[in-house]
Amino acid sequence: MIQYGDTMILFEDGKPKQFITVTQGQTYQNKYGAYHHYTFLVKPGEEILSKNGTGPIYLMTPNPHLITETVPHKTQILFMADISMIILKLCLKPGQRVIESGTGSGSLSCSLAAAVGHKGRLFTFEFNKERANNGKELFAKLKINQATCFWRDVYTNGFLKGDDVENQGEFPQENSVDAIFLDLPQPWLALDHSKKMIKKGGRICCFSPCIEQVQKTALELRQQGWKNLETLECLKRHFERRVKQEQSLFDDVQKKVCTDQNKRVTYSSGINQAYGHTGYLTFAQYI
């Protein structure tokens, strides 16, 4: 059952719309009317009607996919095709420790935190102070306690605990993390710091929108002794279900319309246009 204080994802008109924290005495208003928050104290996914008895909405428990669809876009975010490939190729599993640099809107951060579970740790670093604070608020709102967000320029200061009083909480130690993800304009400038943090056998992923960034990153990775380099691009394409009426050969010969002879054929067809380029994922392993 949903309780006061829970943060849920509100579905309206069949789509995830926003985060909403169920608060005693509050009212949610949309084009269908008013919804008192006490009517939200139901099981997740149950239909909730407005005071006028119209416009059903639904409250769903946050999960990585719904968070990605709902989180406000402070920056360009990674979507499920890239996120799933990152988690797979970094070999993430519960209990591991992961560093992320480039928190952004926190979309990937929530998926990484879910992958390592409550016994794992996610240390995420963001150069922009406003986005760093937004990340902290998002983790607190969604009760993602295994994630810690730091405001820091990792090019200059790296990932170890320093003298900056702004950052509180547990920092990663040298040679202690299983995987690193870099979403930076110049990821090659953070590779020295990354090498200090990664365990033997650990993996790194660098996200870059441009192939020139990939080339510089790959060159620096090779010079530092990283192995098993691989660059991927993930493109997503939807398929639709379609139905067409197929006329029998008998109808063509007799020039008659025999509806009982006609067949309804269901088939799938890919949409001609795939989702466009988001970026390149460069993976490597420290051996």
From TrEMBL:
GO terms for molecular function: tRNA (adenine(58)-N1)-methyltransferase activity. GO terms for cellular component: nucleus; tRNA (m1A) methyltransferase complex. It is an enzyme of class 2 (transferase). Its EC number is 2.1.1.220. Belongs to the class I-like SAM-binding methyltransferase superfamily. TRM61 family. Keywords: Methyltransferase, Nucleus, S-adenosyl-L-methionine, Transferase, tRNA processing. The keyword Nucleus applies. Residues 57-263 form the tRNA (adenine(58)-N(1))-methyltransferase catalytic subunit TRM61 C-terminal domain. It catalyses: adenosine(58) in tRNA + S-adenosyl-L-methionine = N(1)-methyladenosine(58) in tRNA + S-adenosyl-L-homocysteine + H(+). This is tRNA (adenine(58)-N(1))-methyltransferase. PANTHER family: TRNA (ADENINE(58)-N(1))-METHYLTRANSFERASE, TRNA (ADENINE(58)-N(1))-METHYLTRANSFERASE CATALYTIC SUBUNIT TRMT61A. It comes from the Eukaryota. It is found in: Nucleus. Signal peptide: none annotated. GO terms for biological process: tRNA methylation.
